[in-house]
Design a protein that fits this description.
Blueprint: E1 11-19, E2 25-36, E3 46-50, H1 57-60, E4 76-80, H2 91-95, H3 108-122, E5 128-134, H4 136-147, E6 154-158, H5 166-180, H6 194-208, H7 211-215, H8 227-241, H9 244-255, H10 269-274, E7 279-282, H11 293-300, E8 306-308, H12 326-340
Parallel strand pairs: 3-4, 3-5, 5-6, 6-7, 7-8
Antiparallel strand pairs: 1-2, 2-4
């Protein structure tokens, strides 16, 4: 059984050369992950938390803890870093010559296939009680439920979707264009100047919160005295913590997120949704500019065991960022409790 690990450590699982959905190969691939709690004798007290766009396993720690709905005292929590996030195999590694050439793109299907290997071939998991996550992590939760309906009991995607919408695709084209407009962008794997990362951050921040958030000054609740303070903080975060090539790799994955774009469903999106037998509570934020409730409503209508449970907040997509809204934390925990302990 997997033992409790220290708060500062994480492990890496060697995958070898991974054949991708595109037909290319991801060489010498590794998944970075961290576990919390212990796997029970049945191997089924497992909660999987993939990572989101600018997240690592450390930021996932804001979604669980002692006394919360996901509690390592009772659950074996496995937090898995997505390819491209700088901890699992990423273009920034390839740029340093550590992993070999980066392929044209890695899909969320590829991520989940490798996560399955980690869980079932390496960690001894027999069944998954819950896959949950924010944003791109929630998109991976949808993938888990569609690709492995016989292994997943429940999912909670929040501020996410089963398929990236055309409008979401266009938003991502905008932030990508801001990054690539940097005159020092080399396009070959080296670092860009800070100019492109700062431009990316400013465009991205404008979509992360709602119109109400900026109009009514909710940024002050996050400790910012002005909108400019918020934008500068986003700039600094991206310059200090993110590699431009890693961001582009994850944008590629996000833009092509689709639970049906694989050999199992052959792009039949309705069929993929209908195959999700897991108990599902889908949580959109009503003021999310990326993943509006309307898209989720269409999905839930096709899922046989799903509920749409919207949450209203001017924090928009960032309502789910740990620490932003304590009421959302309670709302999320209530939903997790409901799917983990369904009434008969």
């Amino acid at each position: 059984m997997e033992e409790i690990m220290s708060l500062t450590s994480h492990s890496s699982f060697d995958l070898g050369d991974v054949p991708l959905l595109s037909g290319e190969t991801l060489p010498n691939a590794q998944l970075a992950y961290k576990t919390y709690g212990r796997l029970n004798a049945a191997g089924d007290n497992v909660v999987v938390l993939p990572t989101f766009f600018t997240g690592t396993h450390r930021r996932n720690e804001g979604f669980f803890g002692p006394g919360r709905a996901i509690d390592p005292e009772h659950h074996f929590v496995v937090s898995i870093n997505m390819f491209g996030n700088g901890l699992s195999t990423s273009p920034s590694h390839a740029a340093r010559g550590e992993q070999g050439a980066w392929p044209s793109g890695v899909t969320l299907y590829d991520n989940v296939q490798c996560q399955h290997r980690l869980l079932f071939d390496h960690l001894g998991v027999q069944r998954i009680a819950l896959v949950a996550g924010w944003s791109m992590a929630g998109c991976q939760a949808y993938h888990w439920a569609a690709l492995y309906p016989d292994l997943v009991d429940a999912i909670i995607p929040f501020c996410a979707s089963a398929k990236t919408s055309p409008h979401n695709f266009v938003f991502l084209e905008g932030v990508k264009a801001a990054l690539l407009a940097d005159p020092r962008w080399d396009g070959r794997g080296g670092a860009s100047s800070t100019r492109g990362l700062k431009a990316f951050a400013r465009v991205y921040a404008g979509w992360a919160y709602s119109q109400t958030f900026f109009r009514d000054g909710y940024y002050r609740e996050l400790g910012y005295e002005s909108i400019e303070d918020l934008l500068v903080d986003w700039e600094n975060d991206h310059v200090q913590h993110w590699n431009a090539h890693d961001l582009l790799a994850k944008i590629w994955s996000w833009q092509r997120s689709d639970i049906s774009a694989n050999p199992l469903y052959e792009s039949n999106f309705q069929s993929a949704l209908r195959a999700i037998s897991a108990r599902a509570i889908v949580i959109p934020c009503t003021q999310d500019l990326y993943f509006p409730p309307e898209d989720n409503r269409l999905e839930v209508n096709e899922m046989p065991n799903a509920e749409l449970r919207p949450y209203d907040s001017p924090f928009g997509h960032c309502v789910a960022n740990p620490g932003n809204d304590t009421e959302f934390e309670k709302f999320l925990d209530a939903a997790i409790h409901d799917v983990l302990q369904p009434t008969n």
